Amino acid sequence: MTSLIQNIAVDCADPYRLATFWSHVLGRPIHPDNEPGDEEVGVMLDDAQELLFISVPEPKTVKNRLHLCLRPHQLREQEVAELLRSGATMVDDRRNEDGTGWAVLADPEGNEFCVLRSAAERGR
């Protein structure tokens, strides 16, 4: 049996606001049929898959059981700094002096994600 992941759904309070944040982070567009106030807003990852933000009434209460790990094109330190300026918050800094490790951040609604080293940094 094989299946294709069509979307990765994220429960949230404000789908358009969160989709706008992730659209900026990933450099991918919000689905053209979506607008502020929609209960479901997608960020198009490719022609068939999207990161889908769905409005739910209850707030986030515990740590995510699933999270995204980002591998930036630029240096990790630059990416973390830009994400923090864009509205993310630092949850757990696991970066090591030797360049290994990662940073755990949260998006504007508290969903955790990791920022790994770039390919260039891994090659060193």
Describe the structure.
The termini are far apart. It contains three helices and seven strands, in the order βαβββαβββα. With 124 residues, it is α/β, with parallel strands linked by helices. It has two domains: 1-59, 2,3-Dihydroxybiphenyl 1,2-Dioxygenase, domain 1; 60-124, 2,3-Dihydroxybiphenyl 1,2-Dioxygenase, domain 1. The strands form two sheets. Strands 4-7-6-5 form a four-stranded mixed sheet, with helices on one face. The protein has helices at residues 15-26, 76-85, 119-122; strands at residues 7-12, 40-44, 50-55, 68-70, 89-93, 103-106, 112-115.
Instruction: List the uncertain runs.
Output: none
- The average pLDDT score comes to 95
Biggest sheet features: 4 strands, mixed
Shape: globular
| Main CATH class of the largest domain | Alpha Beta
> How much of the sequence is in beta strands?
25-35%
Query: What is the first-to-last residue Cα distance?
Result: 40 Å
Helical proportion? 10-25%
Helices, by number, come to 3
The CATH topology of the largest domain comes to 2,3-Dihydroxybiphenyl 1,2-Dioxygenase, domain 1
Order of helices and strands: EHEEEHEEEH
Level-2 CATH architecture of the largest domain: Roll
Biggest sheet strand line-up? 4-7-6-5
List how many beta strands DSSP finds. Answer: 7
When the domains are counted, the total is 2
Q: Evaluate the radius of gyration.
A: 15 Å
CATH superfamily of the largest domain: 2,3-Dihydroxybiphenyl 1,2-Dioxygenase, domain 1
Which structural class do the helices and strands define?
alpha/beta
